[in-house]
Amino acid sequence: MASVVQRLLTRTIISSSSLPASCRKTRMHICAVLASSHEDPLGIKSRSKSLEEHQKQQMARGLPKKRPVDGVKHVVVVASGKGGVGKSTTSVNLALGMLASKQSLRVGLLDADIYGPSIPKMMNLRGQPELTKENMMKPLVNFGVPCMSMGFLVEEGAPIVWRGLMVMSAVEKLIRQVAWGELDVLVIDMPPGTGDTQLSISQLIPISGAVIVTTPQDIALLDACRGTEMFRKVDVPVIGLIQNMSHY
């Protein structure tokens, strides 16, 4: 891809040396974006070439096989049919509630909303994750909850303009290439809707249950029903429905 982009750029009528500095910077940025691959959108190489070969073989065979997240006993996803119903707030409260329970569960929080990550702000976290010797990302921790989000990997306020393949690859890396440690529960804050992210996660890892968040409005309830039906089709049990803002 990079070589193709380079050939296209060298065939332009106006050379880069004759362009203003601002245009040259824009040209370099476009080149970098075009040269990126959906196979590694986060810029983190796989731990081994054998793993890459294994992934290619699985892609050739069809759907990926479900494999548990290393060190994680249970995965609970928090989903909604619409945005703005309080799904991320519910995810944070659920994680902190389980941490404060009598069982003192070890809980992690994954923000799977690639386009609109909210967990960094809600958990009062900022900065970029460090890498371990095994090239795994270390989750950022606050209130005793390890967290990972796309918001840690881009500048605050920067838009994510990706196609579905890059989103799916990024979600897999946020799940597989994070050093979660030993967790009783990993809470995943899903994006709204029933798209690529929901399907990818349901195919990649076993999910213990889904919590659906909605509001009392008829349209929101219709979308919540669609989300519930989606989880039924991928054999994920719905363990509860939260009607948020029902007293307003």
Characterize the structure shown:
It is a single chain. The chain has one domain (65-243): 3-Layer(aba) Sandwich (Rossmann fold). The chain has 248 residues and is α/β, with parallel strands linked by helices. The longest helix has 16 residues, at 218-233. It is globular, with a radius of gyration of 20 Å. The protein contains 8 helices and 7 strands. The protein has a 7-stranded mixed β-sheet with strand order 3-4-2-5-1-6-7, with helices on both faces. It holds the Pfam family ParA.
Helix/strand layout:
Layout: H1 2-10, H2 21-35, H3 49-61, E1 72-79, H4 87-99, E2 107-111, H5 119-122, E3 140-142, E4 145-149, H6 164-176, E5 183-189, H7 196-204, E6 209-214, H8 218-233, E7 238-243
Parallel strand pairs: 1-5, 1-6, 2-4, 2-5, 6-7
Antiparallel strand pairs: 3-4
Supply database-style keywords.
248 residues; alpha/beta; Rossmann fold; seven-stranded mixed sheet; 8 helices; 37% helix; metal-binding; 4 iron, 4 sulfur cluster binding; ATP binding; Mrp/NBP35_ATP-bd
Task: Give the strand order, joined by hyphens, for the main sheet.
Answer: 3-4-2-5-1-6-7
CATH third-tier fold name: Rossmann fold
Rg, nearest Å: 20 Å
What's the SSE pattern?
HHHEHEHEEHEHEHE
Low-confidence stretches: 4-20, 22-36
Number of helical elements? 8
GO molecular function: 4 iron, 4 sulfur cluster binding; ATP binding; ATP-dependent FeS chaperone activity; metal ion binding
Family: Belongs to the Mrp/NBP35 ATP-binding proteins family.
Pfam family, one: ParA
Keywords: 4Fe-4S, ATP-binding, Iron, Iron-sulfur, Metal-binding, Nucleotide-binding
